[in-house]
Amino acid sequence: MILFKTTATLQHYLNKLRNKSLTIGFVPTMGALHEGHLSLIKESRKTCNITVCSIFVNPTQFNDKKDFEKYPVTIENDIFLLETNNTNILFLPSVNEIYPGGINKLQHFDIGYLENIQEGKYRPGHFQGVCNVVFRLLEIVNPNTLFLGRKDYQQYLILKKMMQQFYSTVNVQAVDIARESNGLAMSSRNMRLSNSAREKAAILNKALHFIQQNLSVRSVDELVQKAKDSILENGFDEINYIEVCDAETLLPVTNETKHKQLIALAAAFIEEVRLIDNIML
Hints:
alpha/beta; Rossmann fold; Pantoate--beta-alanine Ligase, Chain: A,domain 2; 2 domains; 9 strands; 40% helix; 19% strand
């Protein structure tokens, strides 16, 4: 694996690879890597000649400064995991490389109502930060395919929308959620949980499965309320949202629609750690 820290040296090397007609897959991360990230690396290696992974804890997508400061940094282990999973290139840029004009001069992206619902409602400014960093990383790497995880489903839809306007030639591939043995969606935030909370947190996925299994026999409102009750009764402190939505628009639905693909999404706190999950219905 080759490590690059500057845009100029990375682009020079990637241009050489393109001249050899090699395809490039790109996996952007914020580090603290786990099996979920590695599943993206593996998908890239299946379909592309070269796999590039970036590690950059993006300050512009944290609406809570404390959350940014608490984000786990495990760079030595990250490098080990990337090397043992045959990643070709690691891009490890500084803030100045990503935001040469400073973090206070960000581009504004028109992402419509998606910016203000669900995650956007509880994390104002978050998706503008995500769009800015991915826009810049795509500008630097210029991959054939971008690999994204389905756990951040709203983010996936928003980035697809942004890319249709600015990077329409780049393919976007969504990779299924990697889960721990108890069903908990893998997340870098899980590192901040005690062992007890990590076990209790599995109820988030179980509650979504309950909605999935009973959608044809109970109302959406009833299922959502039972899911909320179950989550709070099993160790969670606060729920931001549980919603059943159209999977293409993320607009809430109130009853089962056989002609639409539906998705259930949740965000809740346990031990002051905010976890998200979703499941296709």
